[in-house]
Design a protein that fits this description.
This protein is mostly helical. It has one domain: Hypothetical protein af1432 (Orthogonal Bundle), CATH 1.10.3210. It is built from 19 helices and no strands. α3 crosses α10. It starts with 27 loop residues before the first helix and ends in a 6-residue tail after the last helix. The mean pLDDT is 93. This is Deoxyguanosinetriphosphate triphosphohydrolase-like protein.
Length: 376
């Protein structure tokens, strides 16, 4: 496929932190994708929580299935816009590599534990994974990914962290948080595909769990419009098929909206190349009407699903597990593998170790160290 002028061109990549000769059959972004797929951190995503804990049901999304859905949506949109599909896929597959066990509950707990030691951000942790924590190659730590993939992985970054990264890597992936410029169009697209994917699959998982009902979603225009269309066209549909068809139509509508809105923004800004797109305002996005509908959907999911008493009860337990693990490892770093226990920054080593755990490994370690069995 021919790339648009404003797409990220692998031949013009800003390169890797450790220079390497080119691969004979793959460009830089394809090589990045392959390194991510073969990483240990990627495999762990299959046992990391999205919303529902991994052991609560076999059919709920995990971080791995979420990342695959983001990659699929991102590639579909990128193909229509002439953006680099391989870069989109690499960013999508890597964007949650630094997420803790137990989803956002684990992240919030670990951030609180690290309050006096630089805090914890899962986007920054994803960058740490690919830059430092993966140990696969003899010449360097990390996966040695290209600048463009690393830039996309670092979706958010606190100012203090951005300045620290900039000091170590002048003009690198954190510079845009200081200059207030944008990442590549492919990175912008991944951010939006992430939002589209989790809104859709959280509806599916929420209804499957019984924690949210169709009647609650009826107040959401983005859902109810396409549910009514599905029922009108297929009145014989049962509950699950009706839900799937509604979500399918929702996803299609959002994808087409992003394509149309982004094409208009690109036509108006007319970036000559990928760097010009970085200097422009954000160019990949929804139309104002679709943005409003997406916000309304998220508001209902937050109120009725993410803050459901059953989810909140699990959240409190999960946070206690992470806090107990942090306290136990800080009290005796010898309880960790020597590769972590021997590091001089004990608190960051503990955070790295816990963040890399799957849900079930964290629970096993918690039981070993405290004698408590989930649920306590």
């Amino acid at each position: 496929m021919r790339l648009a002028p404003y797409a990220s061109q692998p031949a013009q990549s800003r390169g890797r932190r450790h220079p390497e000769p080119p691969a004979p059959t793959r460009d830089d972004f394809q090589r990045d994708r392959d390194r991510i797929v073969h990483s240990t951190a990627f495999r762990r995503l299959v046992y990391k929580t999205q919303v529902f804990l991994n052991h609560e049901g076999d059919l709920f999304r995990t971080r791995l299935t979420h990342s695959l859905e983001v990659a699929q949506l991102g590639r579909s949109i990128a193909r229509s816009l002439g953006l680099n599909e391989d870069l989109v896929e690499a960013i999508a597959l890597a964007h949650d590599l630094g997420h803790t066990p137990f989803g956002h509950a684990g992240q919030d707990a670990l951030d609180a534990c690290m309050a006096g030691h630089g805090g914890f951000e899962h986007n920054l942790q994803s960058l740490r994974v690919v830059d430092t924590l993966e140990h696969r190659y003899p010449q360097y730590d990390g996966l040695n990914l290209s600048f463009e993939t690393r830039e996309g992985i670092l979706k958010h970054c606190a100012r203090a962290n951005a300045e620290r990264i900039e000091a170590a890597e002048p003009g690198g992936v954190a510079r845009r948080f200081i200059d207030r410029t944008q990442p590549s169009l492919e990175a912008q697209l991944c951010n939006l595909a992430d939002e589209i994917a989790y809104n859709a699959h959280d509806i599916d998982d929420g209804v499957r769990s019984g924690l949210i009902g169709i009647e609650q979603l009826a107040e959401v225009e983005l859902f109810e419009r396409y549910r009514c269309e599905a029922v009108a066209e297929h009145p014989q549909l049962d509950g699950r098929r009706m839900l799937y068809e509604t979500i399918r139509r929702m996803l299609s509508a959002q994808v087409y909206d992003v394509i149309d809105a982004t094409r208009s923004a690109l036509a108006a800004a007319a970036p000559a190349d990928a760097d010009a797109a970085r200097r422009a305002p954000p160019l990949v996005g929804f139309s104002p009407a679709m943005r409003a509908q997406s916000i309304a959907l998220k508001r209902v999911l937050f109120r009725d699903l993410y803050r459901h008493p059953q989810v909140m009860q699990t959240t409190v337990r999960a946070q206690a597990v992470v806090q107990d693990l942090f306290a136990a490892y800080r009290a005796d770093t010898g309880e960790m593998p020597v590769s972590f226990a021997s590091r001089p920054d004990a608190s960051r080593a503990v955070a790295d170790y816990i963040a890399g755990m799957t849900d079930r490994y964290a629970l096993r370690e918690h039981e070993r160290l405290t004698g408590q069995v989930w649920p306590a």
